[in-house]
Amino acid sequence: MAAVRSSMLSWTVVVPLLALVALALTWGRELGTVLVILVAFVLAGAVLSAVHHAEVVAHRVGEPYGSLVLAVAVTIIEVALIVTLMVSGGPESASLARDTVFAAVMITTNGIVGLALMVGSLRHGLALFNAEGTGAALATVATLSGMCLVVPTFTTTTPGPGFSAAQLAFAAIASLLLYGLFVMTQTVRHRDFFLPVEHGEGPKDADGDGHADPPSNKAAAASLGLLLVALVAVVGLAKVESPAIESAVKAAGFPPSFVGVVIALLVLLPETLAAVRAAARQRVQISLNLAYGSAMASIGLTIPAIAVASIWLEGPLELGLGPVHMVLLALTIVVSVLTVVPGRATRLQGGVHLVLLAAFLFLAINP
C-alpha cells in the first residue's frame, strides 16, 4: 500500500497534473513577470515528465512503436496548436504553418540528429544505426519537404509562395499516403530496419534492449495517459508563454518569425531529451527514429490539417520557402544522405549537423 501511495505521489505523476491545472488557470490571461517565471518552471517539469513517460511506453511496446508514439503524439498536439493560432491570428498568420514546420524539420534533422550522433560517438566511439531504415525515413522527409515547402515557391496558378486549392488538396493527400506508407513499412513489413543495432555487449533482458525489463500493461497505460497530459500541457503552456516570448523577441530586435522557432524548440524538447538519452545508451537508431519520424509527421500531418482548415481560413496561405531557407534545406538533405549511407557516424558528422542548426537559428535572427 505504501509503495502504491509513493508511486502516486511521484513527481512524474504530480507534475503533469500540476501543469494541466496551471494551463487551465492561465489560458487566455495576461501574465505578470512572476507568473511567467513560474509557468516556465512548470513547463520545464512537464517536458521532463513527458520524456519519462514516453520511455516507459517505449519499453512496453518496443521499438519502433515507442518512437512512433512520442513523435505522433507531439505532432498531433503541435498541429492542433498551429491550426488554432491560424484561425485566431488572421492574415498575420499566413506564414505560421510554413515557419513552424520548417523550424521543426531543421530542429529534428539537424538538432536532434546532431546531438544524438555527437553523444553516441563521444560515449561509444562510433554511433551505429541501420542505414536501410534511416535512409528510407530520410528519403520520405526529403520528398515531403520538397513537395510541400519548396514547390509552392515556384507554382504559378496563384500569386505568392502558395498552392491553389487543387494543388493543396493534392499535396495533402500525397502527404498522408506517404506518411501512411512509411508507418506501415516501419511497423509491419520491415520493422527490423528500424531496430537498434546490436553490439553484443551487456546482459540480455526480456525486451532485449539491454536495460530495464518492460513495465506491466497497467503501468504502461498509466504512463500513456500521463504522457498525453504532459504533452498537452507542454504545448498549451508554450502558447501561454508566447506573449512573453513575443515581447522578449521584439525587445531583442529579432524578426517576428523567430517566435515560431522558439515555440518549436519548446514543443520538441521532450523528443530531444528522449533522443539524447537513447543515444547515451548506445541506441542511436531510436534517436534517429524520433528525429526523422517527428520531421515526417510534422509535414505529413500539418499539411492535410491546414488543407481542411483552409476551408474557413481567410487570407492567403504561404507555404513556399525563401531562397536562404531552400539552400539550408538542400544542404541538410545532402549532408544527411552522406551521414546515413555508411550506417555509422563520428562526432564530425554530429558537429556538421549542429553547425547547420546553428546557421538556421542565426539566420532566423539575422535574415
Uncertain segments are 1-6, 201-212
Q: Strands of the largest sheet, in order across it?
A: 1-2
Q: What's the tally of helices?
A: 13
What letter string, H or E per element, gives the SSE order?
HHHHHEHHHHHHHEH
CATH fold-level assignment = A middle domain of Talin 1
How would you classify the helix and strand content by structural class?
mainly alpha
Q: Quick one: CATH superfamily?
A: NCX, central ion-binding region
Please give the largest β-sheet.
2 strands, antiparallel
InterPro entries: Alkaline_pH_Ca-Antiporter (IPR052946), NaCa_Exmemb (IPR004837)
Keywords: Membrane, Transmembrane, Transmembrane helix
GO molecular function, one term: sodium:proton antiporter activity
Pfam family, one: Na_Ca_ex
Description of the molecule:
The chain has helices at residues 2-8, 11-26, 33-61, 65-89, 96-124, 131-154, 165-189, 217-252, 258-267, 269-280, 284-309, 323-340, 347-365, and strands at 127-128, 344-345. It is an all-alpha fold and 367 residues long. It has one domain (2-365): A middle domain of Talin 1 (Up-down Bundle), CATH 1.20.1420. Helix 2 (11-26) crosses helix 8 and helix 5 runs antiparallel to helix 11 (284-309). The longest helix is centred in the middle third of the chain and has 36 residues, at 217-252. GO terms for molecular function: potassium:proton antiporter activity; sodium:proton antiporter activity. It is found in: Membrane. Its main location: membrane. The chain crosses the membrane at residues 34-53, 65-89, 101-122, 134-154, 166-184, 219-238, 258-278, 290-313, 319-341, 348-365.
